[in-house]
Design goal:
Helices cover about 40% and strands about 15% of the residues. By secondary structure, it is of the alpha/beta class. Strands 1, 2, 3, 4, 5, 6, 7, 8 and 9 form a nine-stranded mixed sheet that branches. Helix 5 (about 130-140) packs across helix 12 (about 275-295), helix 9 runs parallel beside helix 12 (about 275-295) and helix 9 crosses helix 13 (about 300-310).
């Protein structure tokens, strides 16, 4: 543990399977301005985390390791990080999202009133050379691209977002489940409590995306299966069967959503040929996964497959020379 003599302004929550997985993002976070005001929380299991590089963590005002029990769960680990945080604002980061130097300070400035519970930065495509990277990025993050105007958000993110810690803690024990981005329940609860979120494009992070077909299809299928399974747990059988019957329409809806957010990409970045074909293929595979979930077809490896793809997305990114140092 490395402690700061003053209370941190932001706690950065990073869930991981090992410290080595975090090295690239820690190098990026080390370039943050005012980093002496920030605390870093590394969350993982004692069995896998391994040695922590305290020399790399010394760039921050404070740094701690939080151990969680096996089997590892991303949502559970992030929940443990929120509970352990010392700052009033917690930023839930990722292993493959690289903040610009002033991002956290700009996000702090976005908390303009007490009902603003979260601030979301602009999310740019970090590996824009391929159509498949763009297909991955647009489907997952196009809604929060750099050209989106600042203002209130109806659809905030769960990760790559800064939250008021006390509002998350008030959710109680379910927090470890609600931080699962495939559950769709966190934001309806916060909205019901009168909270809102803001989008602050002055804060920006570069997000690395899957650029290999096999990885893209795996992520899309298992994400769809998890979403379908989560919904099936809450829905009646008639509603589940209605969605199965309507499933041929799901890819068209998903592609329409992507087309509606293309304008939010960085102005200097153009879509390679084949991008929308990649989006369409991913949408079909997502729909197949959702149908499996609605029908109650168990896929025991789905969560483990998604966690592996999430933590190790750099393996599937086909990074160009500009990102070769990661």
């Amino acid at each position: 543990m490395r402690a700061s003599p003053t209370a941190p302004r932001v706690s950065i929550v990073l869930a991981t399977d090992s410290y080595d997985t975090l090295r690239p993002v820690m190098a990026s976070l080390g370039q943050q301005r005012d980093r002496a005001d920030f605390e870093v929380l590394v969350i993982g299991t004692a069995e896998s985390l391994g040695a922590v590089d305290w020399s790399q963590l010394s760039a921050f005002g404070a740094a701690r390791v939080v151990y969680v029990p096996a089997p590892f769960s991303l949502a559970g680990a992030r929940g443990a990080g929120v509970r352990a945080a010392a700052a009033p604002i917690v930023f839930i980061g990722e292993t493959h999202s690289f903040p610009h130097p002033g991002m956290l300070s700009s996000m702090l400035a976005g908390f303009t009133d007490e009902r603003c519970v979260a601030v979301v930065p602009a999310i740019a495509n970090a590996n824009p050379a391929s159509a498949l990277s763009w297909a991955s990025y647009l489907a997952d993050y196009g809604f929060w691209g750099p050209e989106r105007p600042a203002g209130l958000l109806e659809r905030p993110l769960v990760h790559n977002t800064a939250f008021r810690r006390d509002a998350l803690l008030a959710l109680g024990e379910p927090l470890a489940v609600l931080l699962d981005c495939n559950r769709e329940e966190l934001w309806p609860l916060l909205h019901q409590q009168g909270y809102h979120a803001r989008f602050v494009p002055a804060a920006q992070t570069d997000h690395v995306n899957a650029a290999e077909l096999g990885a893209l299809l795996k992520i899309r299928f298992f994400a769809g299966a998890m979403i379908g399974a989560r919904r099936a747990h809450r829905w009646t059988w008639p509603r589940r069967l209605l969605y199965v019957a309507a499933s041929p329409l799901i890819p068209a809806l998903l592609v329409w959503r992507v087309r509606s957010v293309v304008r939010f990409r960085a102005a200097h970045q153009r879509l390679p040929g084949g991008t929308m074909a990649g989006v369409a293929v991913g949408a079909v595979v997502t729909a197949l996964g959702e149908v499996c979930g609605y029908l109650g077809i168990r896929l025991p490896s789905a969560e483990a497959q998604l966690i592996d793809a999430e933590l190790h997305k750099l393996r599937y990114a086909r990074l160009g020379p500009e990102m070769s140092g990661l």
